[in-house]
Amino acid sequence: MSAENGSAPSAAPPATSPAVLGSRYGTCDGKAALARETSPGSWQVKVHDPKSPQAGHDGWVMIGRDWPSLAEASAATGLS
Length: 80
What we know:
Structural class: mainly beta
Number of helices: 1
Shape: elongated
């Protein structure tokens, strides 16, 4: 029993290691590009194009998502 509150100490939750997700920088149509795995088996690709009206506040434009592999994301977007 704990001397502080009179209850038995609780067991710590089991340690789990977070999933290691992938990412890759490259180019796409002459612009900087980033492919990243947002969850295991789900890749998205963004390009940095701050002049695009579709760009977010950080200048990145999503060009596709939900590919099951980096190879498929690269093939679909021209990421090199």
